Amino acid sequence: METKVYYIDEKDDKKIKEASRIIKAGGTVVFPTETVYGLGANALDEDACKKIFLAKGRPQDNPLIVHVADFDISKYVKYIPEKAKILMENFWPGPLTIIMPKSDTIPYMVTAGLENVAIRMPLNKIARKLISYSGVPIAAPSANISGRPSPTTIEHCIEDLNGKVDMIIGGEKCEVGLESTVVDVSDGEVIILRPGAITKEMMEEVIGNVFIDPAVLDKLKDDEKPRAPGMKYRHYAPSAPLTIVCGDINRVIEYINSKTLENNMKGIKTGILATDETVNEYKGSLKISLGSRKKPGIIAANLFDCLREFDKIDVDIIYAEGFGEEGINLAIMNRLKKAAGYNIVKV
Ligand code: TXA
Ligand code: MG
Predict the structure, then answer these.
(1) Does residue 234 belong to any structural domain of this protein?
(2) Best mutation site among 61, 92, 142 for ligand 1, i.e. most ligand atoms within 8 A of its Cβ?
(3) Residue 21 and residue 273: Cα distance in Å, rounded?
(4) Which pLDDT tens digit goes with each residue over 59-73?
């Protein structure tokens, strides 16, 4: 199929309207959000949503997030739980997805058969205009081939989905760079199923206790079922196996340097995912810095792009420095752990 690719900004109403006509007609459009690019289709149209699963190669049991541009979501949910109202008032529009009991208008194709639907109001203006002009909510997972790192630039989307969708629009790099925080409020409490830029600490300030689903921190056992089906898949992965090295930073450097040397002698090309503070301490040449540890927001924004970079420079094995688990670091570590298939060395 031929994919139209338009580099546009939020003022380009003509192109955004053209994209909205594709959505209305049951087609697929890749568009920017503040977190990552999304692969969108009319959330009320089962056949349109099926195209999303096909284009991405996404497992059918992994539900989609429904994107809205309006606070009136009463058509899509059975009711809005009290805690959801507080979160919506404080963090919408923005990178927070809230799981609530679904109404009959949302097809099971979108929720993968679940009784709850995930809803988010993005901050990005192109995204919100596209939803408004379409006149329907837009179901959209990240616009990557399933398993690959989520796309934070239009080039990542073209790389993965050119020829598989009707249109790709955008151009700007996503500011947040990690997917939205996903919380489940359907049982009364707020439970984080996927950490993101809206942190546990930020939500606790307005709502009291917030809980973290065990699947966020550790690998699930084979018989355990995560509350967010997507959390069970290996994700965000570069082609080469990735190991996270945690501990005192000097020992981390020492460990990675000795491994690099060992690998060099065996002819194994070693990639290193470092930070500005440490990158010059590594002996290897195939190293990428995520940014300064003093600016974790920038590290978050660069993470997926750096993981994709390693595929281009052809490494056999990658070592990454670990991060803490406070604030946005929780989200950075969660994505790194998934990319590493929970392969972590403590030094
Ligand atoms: O930032 C984002 O959220 C991006 C942009 C495009 O908005 N979208 C995104 O979608 O990351 P996706 O499909 O890649 O991730 C959605 C996650 C998955 O882990 C999925 O299992 C979970 O949310 N999810 C969606 N609906 C759910 C539901 N009804 N119950 C539990 N988990 C759900
Ligand atoms: Mg995704």
Answers:
(1) no
(2) 142
(3) 42
(4) 999 999 999 999 999
